[in-house]
Amino acid sequence: MKIKVSPDKKYVLLQSICDDTTSTSYYGESSLYYLDLLYGKFQKISLQEGPIHDFEWTPNASHFIVCAGHQPAKVNLYTNAAKLVKEITTSKVNTIEISPDSRILCLAGFGNLNGDMEFYKLSDLSVIGKTNFYCGVTLKWSSDSRYLLGAVLSPRIRVDNEYRVFTYNGEVIMQEKFNIEVYGSDWIENGKSRFVNLNR
After folding, report:
1. Per mean pLDDT, which range of 69-78, 110-119, 154-163 is the poorest?
2. Which residue, 101, 156, 158, 161, is most buried by CB atoms nearer than 10 A?
3. Sign of dihedral through CA atoms 2, 63, 147, 51?
């Protein structure tokens, strides 16, 4: 089971994962449940058939986003009361990253997907940028919500390890490739300066 508590500690999303009794899915059967800790409301979220790839709360706890279904997967936006607001897109993505100010959504297709990245403004769900980061492994927003750090890391990919820094709409402003294995990357916050930290 995977559990994610809302940032305000009032709600919980729970993903259950079990063996597939129908023998129709390699990934097994997966369901998503919503729990309101204040009022005890508990319900199953109705999703399209297929695996649940990712789900995330917005940092302001007003909504959550779910990416589920056979590829191309559906990405839906819900209120913090588990009411469906809108389908954001149907696309070959499996990774959700929401900026710390809850204004920008990045969807990415990593792992066995092609590395496509899509950027949305959450206020109206308009597309503000697209790019590609083939073989990308990780993504992380800077604390000011202006930049996104992506990396190709070992052991998933043992050659051509690199990092890239994207703007909030997908433009690459910095990148570096390595001829050694890189195992991690993260932001180091130091006052107003932001640095990339690499574990290699």
Report:
1. 154-163
2. 161
3. positive
